Each structure stands twice: as C-alpha cells, then as structure tokens.
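Hi support team,

I submitted a single chain yesterday and got back a structure, but I'm not sure I'm reading the token output correctly. Could someone confirm the output below corresponds to the sequence I sent? I've pasted both exactly as they appear in my results page.

Thanks,
R.
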Amino acid sequence: MTGELDALLIRLRAAGERTRLRILYLLGCGELNVKDLTLVLGQSQPRVSRHLKLLSEAKLVERHREGNSVYFRPSQEAAALELTDLIARLLPSGDAVIRNDLSRLEAVRHNRAREAQAYFDGHAGEWDSIRALHIAEDKVEAAMLELAGPGPFPAMLDLGTGTGRVLELFAPKINSGIGVDLSPEMLAVARTKLAEAGLNHCQIRQGNLMNLPYQDHSQDLITLHQVLHFFDNPQPVLNEAARLLAPGGRLLVVDFAPHELEFLREQHAHRRLGFSDAQMRAWLADAGLDVAAHTELHRFGRTPEGNLTVQLWLGASAGAPQPTIDE
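Hi R., thanks for writing in. Yes, this is the structure output for that exact sequence:
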C-alpha cells in the first residue's frame, strides 16, 4: 500500500503545475507531438519537452516514436488513467485559458487536416480508378461488419490502416483499436480523420507488418483490408497476425480474386494480382487458423479494363464462434 501511496504522490506532484495540467487536458483530446503542444501552449520546445519529461517520469503520459516525431497520450495504466480522467473533469472547460488552448488546438488540427487532404487529393485519382473496378465500397464495408460479427471486441488491430477508414468503421464495436501503417503520409491522414471523428479510443502507429511490437494473443479482431496484394509473399504477414490473435479471436482479410489487370502492378505497386480461395485457405492454415467464413462480392457491368471481384475471408483461432455466412 505504501508503494501505491508514493506513486500517487509522485503523480500529484507532477500534475500540480499550471502548464502540466493544460498538457494533460489537451492530451485527453487526442495524441499530440511536441510541435503541436508548442503551438497550442505558446511555449518553447525545450520548456514543453521538460514538462513532458516530468509527466512521463511520473507515468502520467506515455510516448511513442513515429519517424522523426514523438507522440504523447495519457498513460493507459489504470491508476494513472483514473487520475488524468479526474483532472479533465475537474478542470473548468469554461476557463479562458482552457478555451484558448482548445481554440488553438482546433487551428493546429485544421492545418494538419489541410496537409493531409492535400496528400489525399494528390492520390485520390489512383484510388478512384481502382474503386471503379469493383463493387461499391459501402457494400464491402457492410460485408466486413457482418462477417466479423457483432462484437464487442476489446482490442482491434488494423494492419495497413491507410486512411484509418476500417478503424472508423469498427469504432462502435471495439473498446480500443490500433491502426498500423508504414507510410508517414498515410498515418497523417489517418490520425487527422480519427481526431476529427472524436475516436480517442483509436490510435495510429508506424510499424512493419511482419514484425509488430505487440504481445502474443493480445488482439480480438485483426483486419487486413486490401493489403496483402502489396506483398510478394503474404505468409509472414498472416503468421504475424495469427501470433497476435487472442483465443477466440478473428482475422478478417479482404482482397481481390485472381485477375489479369497488369496496370495495377505497373502503376499502383500491386505485387500480386489477386488470390484464389484455395491459396488463401492454405496460407491461413499454415498460420494455424481455420477459415470460418468466406464470401465473394462481384461487380456487375464492365469497365474498359475489366472488373475485380472482392473476396473476404474470416480466419478464426481455436475457440472462435463460427459465423453462419459462407459462400
């Protein structure tokens, strides 16, 4: 008990300063890096970094590196999270300082959103040309929700998250979610979209899909939406997903059926031109997963290039309930 009392005193001393209270309140609104906080607080980078160091040492905030930036959020340890939630409730939202902080935070996010949108607009033509080849995305998303099941899912991992859309889609069904991608530009888009949607229970992380820093059997739902065709060999990605899947967990894979649209390889960096059901089942089996469900979504009508069929596979670890949907 003495140790818990000492830990609480350390946290209270760390939080008991005007700027650090403001930082804790701001981080409760979403992950921020040092540059974001200097712009909102109007303080120098060394001063803000010093405050963050003290909060980190008291285990009130936690940090993660993403490229050249370091992002901060409230600590997820139960005792620390309870304290930071209490502080956020006690701070008067009508206070002039807090109002100004929130106003500047909105401006920082708006600028970030403009930068993200510029990147997205610059690549929208590429994505639109691919979407035109397959069934409408809302149909794909509806099938994903149905196949995954009603949830709730305590922990979700979206691998190759891109714009973070899959996290948005599943946000009502999950307690916490992490989207992983290698591209800093796509991470910026995803972080902006999730912040605008107020989805503070979803996080964005940079990472290699074949070597993820998460514990074995820690995820209840893992999604791979239009990701595997960028890999020459998808097996290591599926093996890593299977390692992370909790008992009774589910792996939802969405990708194309075999096709002959070579321009996707030449112009859009696709390494594989779709996957057969037999091949995907073999990979999932090698990863130690059963195929609990499989479905195909065909596009009717034909574009000059041809059509793409979208396939969905639900891989289940031992003990997962078996959905009734199948092809």
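A quick pointer for reading it: DSSP finds twelve helices and ten strands in the chain. Let us know if anything else looks off.

Best,
Support desk
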